[in-house]
Amino acid sequence: MGTSRNVERRTVLKVAGASVATVGLGATTACGGESGSGDGNVTLRYAWWGGEPRTIAMKKAIALFEKKYPKIKIKPEFTDYEAFWEKFQTQASGGNPPDVFQNAVGFLRKYDKRGVLMDLKPQADAGNLDLKNFRNGVLANGQVDGKQIGVPVGANTMALVIDLKAFQKAGVEPKFGWTWDEYFAALQTIQDKLKIAGDTGYFAIMYLYDLYLRQNGKAFFTDSDLGFTEDDLTQWWEDGYKRVRSGLVADPKKIEQAKPKSGLSAGLAASEFTWDNFSIRYEGEGESDYGLAPIPTTDGKDTGQYLGSLMMSAFSGTKHPKEVAQFISFMVHDPEVGKIMGYDRGILATTEQYDAFKPTDPNNKGVAAYEDEVAKAGVLGKITPHPSGADVIEAAFLRIGGEVSQGKTKPADAAKTLFSEAKAAFAG
Amino acid sequence: MTLVKEAPARPAGKRPAAPAAGRRGRRRENLAGYLFMSPWIAGFLLLTAGPMIASLYYAFTRYNLFTPPEWVGFDNFTTMFQDPRWQKSVEVTLKYVVVATPLKLLLALGVALLLAQKRRGQGVYRAAFYMPSLIGASVSVGFVWRALFSDDAVVDRTQKIFGLDVGGWIGNPDYVIYALVALSIWQFGAPMVIFLAGLKQVPQELYEAAEVDGAGPLRRFWNITLPMISPVLFFNVLLESIHAFQVFGSAYVVSDTRCGPADATLVYTCYLYQKGFKEAQMGFASAMAWTLVIAVALVTAVLFWSQKKWVHYEEAAK
């Protein structure tokens, strides 16, 4: 009896040992087999951020690509914006970022500096990637120091989204070339007549402040620093806080609790500054009708606007640069893909896709009409690639602006804080 | 387990095993034990001990994840102590610990006292009160909390009935921390169960004797129950304060990942997370983590020191 128990034990050990070994083996195979291309098949990881509609469209577009290039498989990865960059940072530092990924201007220099982004020029020269037919010069958005590290998929610009019904009721009509004074007068009229705030909190939006600075001959960023002074910002925030106190701008406490809904679609205010392609969300969220209005100006002409864009970038260490280039080329040029994606990521960047997609719903039509008008007005300036650390500064700008609006920080102290945090962000 | 308990059996008739053989047998058994433990040991070394040692090293470096860590000595610590946001996070966390822990324990003890009495359907009540502890840490509850304490939601409307028009708590930097406190108190189930076990241990004779002496319920509680369960109370205080120092999930979700508004819910771990994973300042984040470890160790030490004054173990009572 005792013996048998002994035997039993040994068997148990052997089995345990064997299974450990198998697990070990399994692990090695899993590692080695990741992108095994013995049969000529290649798997690319492609990551993006965005909501559900974008994901559905993206998967359709990917299916189309896989049909045309049967030897290339695309493995999708997607999350929301915040989670995307946290994950990406960790993956990239571990040398394991996705082969292809969505990118934006605030991150170009940051990841270029860290050697993560592939220069796509050589691939274009080799004929794997087509860099022609981009509209309004947006291709330049993806260029840093003579390298093409991003390929734009769409173009967007800042706009003022307004609650059409509220503006109508108040009898206010925004026009191209209207000034900030006229804008704030309009907010006053809205408050007087409708008893609601006019704006959701313009002074904490970094990209809007950038436009304001551009109207005054400056810019938020230079190549490596902030392009304005502490006094400029103090003034901007002091004015903003004054307007919160007087009720022209919505109560920040209410805006905060409406999240993730925007203050505009929650009916807390009649207008909100944002990127024009974001305007599509309001229709779904809110109960009113929404439209796009021009950015107020300082001199009646210059809005300071430029075309920003989402881009596709590639990992510098990818094992399949050729396939990556083919995939990007397909995604930005193929007319079918253009039809599928629509203006979700901004107005389609290439003429092939722009011509293929004819918007039918009022939202997409509105976005297209707005950008047409902006382009015709001839106000578009050039974008400058943001310095490394811009993403951290944008978050800080939003946070500190929020503290100002809540009355928790004095504008002058807030400006000082932003400058010191910016210094740390540029150094990081 | 049985393998370890039983001595290795030998076939009958052989001479008694030499001490060496016994040692060998024991060694073999130890080996078996370690082998079975190996997944845990490997996990501990790889996932806990290793990262801890690494983070201790990073705490003295500037490390952005991409370029190799650069030794900076105590720089991270000096910048940290001067950083107004770090100071704010300490302030917010202390406020949370000091308010949430006692309230939670009071409620746990109160409900445990009620549930200790023999009643019909006792089990159902106990389960019902314990339930929040099981689901409380989930992200979904964070969202529910957000909805409850928002402007014009349940809490806001109820307040208004009583004439308190302060608006929702979530967007208000002065109130939002109390929404987190409420979420913590709501999960009083775990300490409650421990209190219940402690209450069961109190000998009934003591109460009977006290009753004979004419002691009222309050006096009995104060002079018998409280001293008798003080070891359990000590355990709960210790555990819950350590927990409270580490609060993260609720603050992160309720504030829509920003630990705000106006940094009002910037608890320590939330700032640590922002520094590490959003701003990629891993050195700074590691320094913060080790400062927290030391702070919690200090608090624990103080509690242990103070127990001499108020915790009664039965040996001492004799």
User: Which percent range describes the beta-strand content of chain B?
Assistant: under 5%
Q: Could you name the ranges of chain A where pLDDT drops below 50 across 5 or more consecutive residues? A: 1-37
Q: Work out the number of β strands of chain B.
A: 2
Low-confidence stretches of chain B: 1-10
Class from helix and strand fractions of chain B: mainly alpha
CATH architecture of chain B: Orthogonal Bundle
What is the CATH superfamily label of chain B?
A: MetI-like
**Oligomeric state of the chains present here:** heterodimer
Strand order of the largest sheet of chain A: 2-1-3-12-6
Structure, briefly:
Chain A is of the alpha/beta class and 428 residues long. Chain A has helices spanning 2-32, 52-68, 81-93, 105-113, 121-125, 164-170, 180-194, 206-215, 230-245, 252-258, 280-285, 321-333, 335-341, 351-356, 362-377, 390-405, 411-427; strands spanning 42-49, 72-79, 100-104, 143-144, 147-148, 151-152, 154-155, 158-163, 197-199, 269-275, 290-293, 310-314, 347-348.
Looking at this protein, list some descriptive labels.
heterodimer; A: 428 residues; alpha/beta; D-Maltodextrin-Binding Protein, domain 2; five-stranded mixed β-sheet; four-stranded mixed β-sheet; 17 helices; globular; disordered N terminus; B: 318 residues; mainly alpha; MetI-like fold; two-stranded antiparallel ribbon; 16 helices; 2 strands
